[in-house]
Here is the input.
Amino acid sequence: MLKRRACRKVTMGDDRVGRVSIGGDAPVSVQSMCSVYTHDVEACLAEIHKLADAGADVVRVAVPERKDTEALIEIMKHTPVPIVADVHFHYKRALEAVAAGIHKIRLNPGNISDRDQVNEVIDACKEAGIPIRIGVNEGSIIERKDKQKRMSELGKYFEGHRSGHLLAIMIAKLEEYIDIFHDRDFRDVVISAKSMDATLVIDAYTEIAKRFEYPLHLGVTHAGTRETGSIRSIAALGTLLSNGIGDTIRISYASDPVYEVEDGVELLCALDKRERTGIELIACPTCGRIQVDLFTLVEEVKKTLENDISVPMKVAVMGCVVNGPGEAEGADVAVFAGNKRGIIYVQGERVANVPEEEILDRLLVECTALEDKINRGEAKLGQKNVEIIPPDPIGELGSGADKIASGDVEQITIGES
Ligand code: SF4
Here is the structure.
C-alpha cells in the first residue's frame, strides 16, 4: 500500500446529520445514490435510511425536475447523512437545491458548461458554504459535433495509450472547468472522472491525482450488474486506493444500491481503510476434501451472524481439518468440518463437536457468548487462549481425507483442549 496522496479537504453536512469530510486526513468515505424518485419523499427517505444503515456516509439524489428540488426541503429535515444533489442540464436545479439546504452539489461539465450559469451555481454554493463535485463521465464529456477533431488534437498527449484520446479529453475538460472555479476563488471542489472501462478509470485518476490538488471521488460508471460491476469496480478502485489515490468511493451497479454500499464498505475494510462493525467471515474455497455442505453453511452463517452479532469478530468456516486448525487459531470463532460434524473453537479453545445440522445454532450460541464477554470486558478480539499445534498434513494426516473418512474426527490431534 502506498502512502495516501496529499490533497485539500472539503467538508459537508450540518449540526443535525453531522459532518463528513473528503480528502486531507479524513477517512475514505462510502457513497451511494438513491434509485427511487426524489419527489417521492417517503420512498426516498426510506432508501436513504437503508443506505445509511448499510454504511453509507453520504447519499446522492437525482434532481431532474423542480418537484425533486422541492422535495429536498422535507428530505433535508429527516436524512440521517449528508445529501448531494446530482444536477445535469438544468443549472437552476442546483440553485434550488442550495436554497433547499443541500449539503453538496454535483455538476457535470459535459452538460452544464455555460460560464454564467456555472458562476451562478458557484456563487450560491460559496454563500451557503457547500462543496461542489465536478464529475466528468466518459459518456457525456465529448462534444459530439467535433468529437473526431478534438480526439486527434488532444490524443497526441497520450500517444500509445489504449484510450489516450479519451483521457486527454477528460483532463482537458476538467482543467477548463476548474478554471471557472478558480476565477471565482472557489476551492471547495471534489473531482471525479468515471468510465465503464476499469483501466481507463485507473489511468484517468492516476493522471488527475498528479495534476490537481482536490480530493477525488472514485467510481466506475455503467459497471453493470453486481456480478460484473463488482469485478470492474474492485479492480479499478482497489488499485487506486492501494496506490494512495481516492478520498471517497461510489461503487455502482444496475441493482439495489444497498449492495453498492455493502461492497464499498467491504472494499475499505479489506484494504484496512475502515474498521469493521460486524463479523469478518473467512470461509475455505472448498475442494475434494470437503466434509459438510459448506456452501449452504457459509451462506447461513453469514446471514445469521450479520444480523445477530455486532462486534467485529473474525469467524472461520472451514470444510475439513487441513486448514481448520490454522484458521481456528487465527479466528475468534472457528468451525472446521469432518465426517458430517463440526468442531468449534473459540479463541483457540475447542468448545464443541456437533453434528452438521447443529453447527449453525451452536456457532451462534458461541459467537453470542463471546460477544457478551467482550461487551463485559472479559475477553478481547484477537485474543488466543491456547496454542494449537496443527496436524502434520503429510506425516499424520496425509491429504486429510483418509483420516476424516475414518469417521472419528476426535482422533485428530489438535493440541490441548
Ligand atoms: S479447508 Fe479443507 S475442504 Fe476447504 S479448501 Fe482447504 S483442504 Fe479443501
The mean pLDDT is 89.
